[in-house]
Amino acid sequence: MELIYFGYSHLTRSIDRELARQGLGRAHHRALYFVARKPNLTVSELLSLLAITKQSLGRVLNELTARDLIETRAGERDRRQRLLRLTPAGTKLETELFDAARQKMAAAYARAGQQAVSGYWAVLEGLIPEDEREQVLGLGS
Known about the structure:
Layout: H1 2-22, H2 26-37, E1 41-42, H3 43-50, H4 54-66, E2 70-74, E3 82-86, H5 88-112, H6 114-127, H7 130-137
């Protein structure tokens, strides 16, 4: 548990500094991250991924929209659906934030070696309840 806690803490420090400089927090980062991974993600899907209230997500999305980092549009089949996409400014910011984490992960992976990385991924996947795995793993495709 200590390794998970401290590893995550060190991984997110550089991201947290940039978020603070922008006047944003981790909730904003999580929204940017998931929308970047799946353009046209619905608000409902994002709510499910983040497991937060509509009210909390609404505040985050309103701020990201006001800052021209995320845009919403109505669904093509269901006009009530709100589809989320990053704007060019949102893509730029999310890429900068992700690159900071990616560099740290790449260095750690290189030190650990492929066999360790494969085992680490298997453990992380094992922590996700089976009924949620498809949704989570589908973000990578």
